[in-house]
Amino acid sequence: EEVVVFAAASLKNALDEIAADFGAETGNEVTVSYAGSSQLAKQIIEGAPADLFISANVQWMDEVAKAGLLAGDARGDLLGNTLVLIAHGKDAAAVEIGADTDLTALLDGGKLAMAMVDSVPAGQYGKAALESLGLWEGVQAEVAQSDNVRAALALVSTGEAPYGIVYATDAAADDNVSVVGEFPADSYPSIIYPAALLTVAADAADRAFYDALSGEAAKASFEKQGFTVLTQTQ
Amino acid sequence: MTDWLTPEEWQAVVLSLRVSSVAVLASLPFGVLVAYALARWRFPGHGLLNGLVHLPLVLPPVVTGYLLLLSFGRRGTIGAFLDQFGIVFAFRWTGAALACGIMAFPLLVRAIRLSIEAVDPKLEQAAATLGASRLWVFATVTLPLILPGIFAGMVLAFAKAMGEFGATITFVSNIPGQTQTLPSAIYAFLQVPGGESSAARLVLVAVAVAMAALFLSEWLARSVARRISGA
Amino acid sequence: MTDWLTPEEWQAVVLSLRVSSVAVLASLPFGVLVAYALARWRFPGHGLLNGLVHLPLVLPPVVTGYLLLLSFGRRGTIGAFLDQFGIVFAFRWTGAALACGIMAFPLLVRAIRLSIEAVDPKLEQAAATLGASRLWVFATVTLPLILPGIFAGMVLAFAKAMGEFGATITFVSNIPGQTQTLPSAIYAFLQVPGGESSAARLVLVAVAVAMAALFLSEWLARSVARRISGA
Amino acid sequence: MLKLAIRHEFPGFALDAGFEAPPGVTALFGKSGSGKTTIVNAVAGLMRPDQGRIEVDGLILSDSASGRFLPPHRRGVGYVFQEGRLFPHLTVRQNLLYGRWFARMKDGARFSRIVDLLGIGDLLARRPGALSGGEKQRVALGRAILSNPRLLLMDEPLAALDEARKAEILPYLERLRDETGLPILYVSHSAAEVARLATTIVLIEAGRVLAAGPAATILSDPATAPVLGLREAGAILSARIEAQEEDGLTRLATGAGPVWLSRITAAEGSHLRLRILAQDVMLALQRPSGISALNVLPVTVRDVTPGEGGVLVRLEAGDEVILARITARSTAGLGLAPGMRVYAVLKAVSVAPGSIGTGGP
Amino acid sequence: MLKLAIRHEFPGFALDAGFEAPPGVTALFGKSGSGKTTIVNAVAGLMRPDQGRIEVDGLILSDSASGRFLPPHRRGVGYVFQEGRLFPHLTVRQNLLYGRWFARMKDGARFSRIVDLLGIGDLLARRPGALSGGEKQRVALGRAILSNPRLLLMDEPLAALDEARKAEILPYLERLRDETGLPILYVSHSAAEVARLATTIVLIEAGRVLAAGPAATILSDPATAPVLGLREAGAILSARIEAQEEDGLTRLATGAGPVWLSRITAAEGSHLRLRILAQDVMLALQRPSGISALNVLPVTVRDVTPGEGGVLVRLEAGDEVILARITARSTAGLGLAPGMRVYAVLKAVSVAPGSIGTGGP
Ligand SMILES: Nc1ncnc2c1ncn2[C@@H]1O[C@H](COP(=O)(O)OP(=O)(O)OP(=O)(O)O)[C@@H](O)[C@H]1O
Ligand SMILES: Nc1ncnc2c1ncn2[C@@H]1O[C@H](COP(=O)(O)OP(=O)(O)OP(=O)(O)O)[C@@H](O)[C@H]1O
Ligand SMILES: [Mg+2]
Ligand SMILES: [Mg+2]
Fold this sequence. Notes:
Transmembrane segments (chains B, C): 20-39, 51-73, 85-109, 135-159, 199-221
Strand content of chain A: 25-35%
Distance between the termini of chain D: 16 Å
Helix content of chain A: 25-40%
Number of strands of chain A: 11
Function (chains B, C): Part of the binding-protein-dependent transport system for molybdenum; probably responsible for the translocation of the substrate across the membrane.
Number of helices of chain A: 10
Largest interface: D-E, 72 and 71 residues
Order of helices and strands of chain A: EHEHEHEEHEHHEHEHEEHHE
Strand order of the largest sheet of chain D: 7-8-9-3-10-11
Strand order of the largest sheet of chain A: 2-1-3-10-4-11
Largest sheet of chain A: 6 strands, mixed
Shape of chain D: globular
Bound molecules: adenosine-5'-triphosphate, magnesium ion
Structural class of chain D: alpha+beta
Radius of gyration of chain A: 19 Å
Subcellular location (chains B, C): Cell inner membrane; Cell membrane
Number of strands of chain D: 21
Oligomer: heteropentamer
Keywords (chains B, C): Cell inner membrane, Cell membrane, Membrane, Molybdenum, Transmembrane, Transmembrane helix, Transport
CATH topology of the largest domain in chain D: Rossmann fold
InterPro entries (chains B, C): MetI-like, ModB_ABC
Structural class of chain A: alpha/beta
Shape of chain A: elongated
Helix content of chain D: 10-25%
CATH architecture of the largest domain in chain D: 3-Layer(aba) Sandwich
Largest sheet of chain D: 6 strands, mixed
Number of helices of chain D: 9
């Protein structure tokens, strides 16, 4: 049996591992197509042969749901993530993030690297956090927006931008950046990766994989990549 | 080599080769036809056709991909129509080839068109006086003379197809073994921590393949040119 | 028109125009030089140069953008060097122009090269016997004869630059008013549900601009061709 | 039979020409820029005249009244262009055989004959790019002939060739004309070539037909002589080879009496056209003796036309007409007047091989 | 003074030619494919010979021994190509003036003179694309001349032109030769053109120099006559115009005695070169009377050379040499032998304008 999963690209490392384990265990083959959540959602709406969809944000899962393509019962919030402030260099000084953090002074004429603040999830969350802390107005003009969070990370990693806001999962693996602060959990809407079975999913293998995603082995894989594993799917 | 790449990557390489070759070869006849029409005919829709051909160049690839998805997807008007005849592009490698072919089409057409415009119509006239019909003139005079331009267009299109990513991933997604081309695989690697070295390996493969195609086309074009110069 | 687009979108349009025009105009002399070298000279690095020129076509744009970042970024080798002379690309529209110029370079070079290859060396020889040095021959004979090819290359490059997105955003990211080009704005709209219609508006603007450039170039090329054909 | 009547306007040049070309070679003769190539292009279908009609053997090639316009590839013309137009990507052999693919009838034997005649046997495997000017022209000639056309158009086909090669090709063209009955439209600046080959001559000036008619008439007409060039004025005699004599001479029977010329390589009994240039004919009151000239023909003065560069004297010799060009002083000195009986003196070597054509007029 | 000695190998063709060309016109004469254009290209620097040396007035253009090779644009040659090579994107005027940009000296007055001479005044604003064959060639000719070269290379410059136009251009080329002292390398298939213009003649056959020397010598040498074409064999006489007589004749003083020809438009006292074709000369044992020929010169037979196509008789006339071509039968009939005194008879109209050149050798 083949299970086709459409998943946000940021999940690649963890999902590849989970899929391989699942395949070895059950003999079913899991094929994962990684792309941007928006692309995947649109493809599903246009009839893509995907059995499962794991989105990087809730909005695009909602769009799929609106199109009536979710298998009614199986949708859940699979993973969570946190936002961090990163700086170039291995041992950058820690920054206390709060309403009176002077980001402008910190940047010292440099740019703050983020994903696109109005359209890409990591950017949207970051902007919300800065807004709720009252920092957005001051730093707005200094923000360099990338098309995805990895590109923002690259800007900091290469030293092009001194600071950036990315997911904790991305920051962890890069040797050229250090996490200098975490945004307060209440300063931005919780970051959620919803997963759902789609209507075309027919066979048992699909559901089995969906279930396996919330299993113990999967949990370990996700956590290894820095994700928070949320309350179990139904 | 097989050690150096995982089976899945290896698959992506093979698929990319297949997609790019098919894209170039399948679009070639249309490319030649459109280039000829644009170079030699004056007709009402000339400007429109010309604009249409250049469109994939102007549009961000994602937009092209999205438009393809809307029209050639299973629910798309053209897609649904073709589905009746069993022709499916959506989420198949053929769709990737379609996307690459369309993205590369302006390059193919322009190179061929430039070559056609450089052919002296007096030679074609001479062939006509010797009894060759328009089609024969094209086949025996125009076509051999524009071969260097055709090779140039093909290699441009092939290179473009080997590198095309935005339209492909948007149209047919990134399904390993089915629609995962080299650039999509590279993209996926770049989206996660630690994927850079894998991405770099694949980039090297892509570059090597494209360079091989480039040298082949240069060599072919040069040997044709040498023949024509008469030495 | 100003009503139809928000001031920020309007800014993106203007910036895209500027970036694309500068990219094309600034890369033109290099394009002509490289095309001439590839078409007419035989030198040891010929194949290498040729490969290099085609590279941006093969590489996924993100990779090109990343390589640009590594070399032309402030900390990049070339970037740090140029910084001494006050030349900065990072996060400037100039960087966007650089990215677009490089992405469009293969198209520019190939079109010009094809035209150069179509120029009869016998005419250049004739000019030489009349006393024109190599440079003069180029300026007075070769250049006027390849004008249609130059226009073709410029319009291809311009269209490509208007649509270029991946390399640009990776290299200089997206700072409204400074580096936010049309394609990044379009991309942003496509990332949010329901953004399609806004994206469509911008796509129409991009297409309109590119088509205007296309018609201009066709018209120029045709008027040159008409002069040459001697009517 | 080619019938043509066309008008066409280029900016700064108007063509308005009409003539009929009976079987044989029709020569278009006129200054540079007079419109010869334009006419030939119209016949080939490479140019669509603003107005007019072109017809070959009853087949309408182009007719502005009915809007009919046969495309070039269906006209079956073989065109030797003024500027070669060889296919650069094909070898000489492939160039030569190009028309054969489309020819109405294939004729294999001719290939090697024509290749030999044109002296291009060594070039067959080469591509035209680096051929010499004359080599190109010879290949173009072969290509047109080998396409088995129903009408041959030749735009200065021999201009780049040396006399020796011309002397080889001209007889072949004559045979083509006589044996196949192929109509040939022939553009040339060389009055000698025209005089030798042409059945019909059409004189073109500034896009108009100045005179058209049988070659013998046009060439011996004192009125058209200045256009052709005074040095080319002359009469055409029909002749038959009577004997090849031992000391390198050929005796011919003509309407004007026996004529001896330097050896002509043709069988006894064959018919020839001799062009006797007016300037080669000397007049004498008495039969001269002790001179090197072998031919002394008794003639009667028909008329005397003074003009620039001398006086043209038309002479009746038997049932033929001979033209002589002499000075006004000699005319006066000899007291020439119509009806006078004098002797025409002609050197045996005067009649050049180029002026001897096969076949009757 | 041009000195040339080069070797070059093409696949299937080897060139090995050397000659010296003194000031004046040096004609390269030879069959199609004999290597004429190749030689001219080597002089222009468009082809680098495998071996050899080319020198003009002491300036080394190319020398394989020292590796010196002056690039074409620094050679100052004006080259009239066999195939036009006009710049398609420039108007006729711009084509004509192209060389002027780079010329060593500008000479404004000449422009309109040359345009008039070539009859291309109406074409100045046009582009070359749609010019007729002859029009193109005339523009190419003008372009080369107007570039003020130190050496003029002309590869069949008049091949596409009608006789009338040729007759206008040839005197101009003569003036160019005589007044400016410009050395000219001239390729032509027309022996008449060569004979008229050439100071020096170089006969080329299959890439080798068959004979080279002063035109008068080569043309009147019975040995080289067959190469040039028997009909073109003849002697060159130096002449001076003594009087323009009333009845349209010009009286000339030559070393062979007075000669009357049809009016030559040149001032009294000017020096000319007359080419008397061997075939136009008739021999008589007694001075003939009552004939139209005006020139009867007493001559002495120097030698008698039988050959194909007749007998060449070299005659001493005063201090000049005249060549006559007659049949073997006449030679026998008249009993010609060296030392015999006979009369050479020449029609006044025989000497064509094309055979009269200005300036003495
Ligand atoms: N397309 C055109 N536009 C304008 N003028 C033209 C065009 N084609 C030909 N002509 C002019 O028409 C005239 C006749 O041209 P054509 O080629 O028929 O002359 P031709 O008699 O063949 O001369 P030549 O002996 O020099 O080849 C020339 O003056 C030429 O410049
Ligand atoms: N690049 C080349 N490669 C091979 N053969 C060549 C090349 N260039 C010239 N030839 C040959 O060399 C010979 C001499 O050529 P060239 O052009 O000098 O002849 P030409 O005397 O000018 O003849 P024409 O009177 O026909 O113009 C020809 O047989 C030609 O085919
Ligand atoms: Mg012509
Ligand atoms: Mg030649």
